[in-house]
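Slide 14.
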Amino acid sequence: MKSLPSPRLAGAALLALFAPLAVQAEALNPPVKVRYEEVVRSILYVPKYVALSQGYFKDAGLDVSMKTSQGTDKGMTALLSGSADIVLIGPEASIYVQNSESPVKPKIFAGLTATDGFFLLARKPVEKFDWSMLKGKEIIGFRPGSNPLVFLETALRKHGVDPQKDVKLLNNIGIPARAGAWMAGQGEYGIFLEPEAGELVRNGKGYIVASVGHEVGQVDYTVFTATDKYIRDNPKVIQAWTNVVARAEKYVQDTPAATLTPQIMTYFPGMDQAAVTEAIERYKQYQIWKRSPLVTAEAMQQLQDMLVASAVMKDGARVKYEDVVVTDFARKAQ
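Slide 15: predicted structure.
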């Protein structure tokens, strides 16, 4: 005689059966339109593209439109001017605005990347790279005060290289022009995100010698940010968004790069799938993506230490963690 399932197993089966219905019931209804801006278009943000392409936002009742800001400064401007509801930018921007006279204050509510995603490229192959090799060299950096430059300078100092005296940092090149500047011969070294880094390597125009994020360690690098007013007025939207982020982060951690690649290709038209897979695998190797959307006090403290060391913020201008980060939504998402 066939045995009947235990009550506990039967209950588990029912929960599994109705789980999709529970998710649907929790979705915002009617769907809420959200104007979203990403800082740049990069494979660094795979979890977000997966969430968009696989319908995670739609499942949560969020109707998302997306623009690319081309810089944290521009993303913050969009947020403060009211042309964007949620932006993905560096957390340093919220610290700067907190110290400014702006009556509108941004709040970080979820994190996406656990550290810097830039790779240091050399023009020639280096059998055994040492950071001391950078002394006396020109390096394509990033906009002054930005996280990419602050993290690079932190990595340089870690290895005994003074960013102000030992190297020449080229920090005045616009984001869209950086790869072109490198191709034109500017800089002996440079920092690049994927997919640019991989494209330069495949074309024989550069060689990856180091990961800036690996050298600096786990310090939140890009975060989802909204104004304090938007968060107060739309807590259900913020919670739904954070739930999506948590879902996408877990999925990306547990999913092979080859599976993720076709799910994000619509955001990288014209790129070879094998190249995208290689880029994702490289980021997985260096544990670039967060496992939880929570931005911790320790990470923000370390970031402010780095900002002070890079002389873009005075020690007395440090801000309180709770003034720039709201944790309620990320904790509930966990």
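Speaker note: The chain has 16 helices and ten strands.
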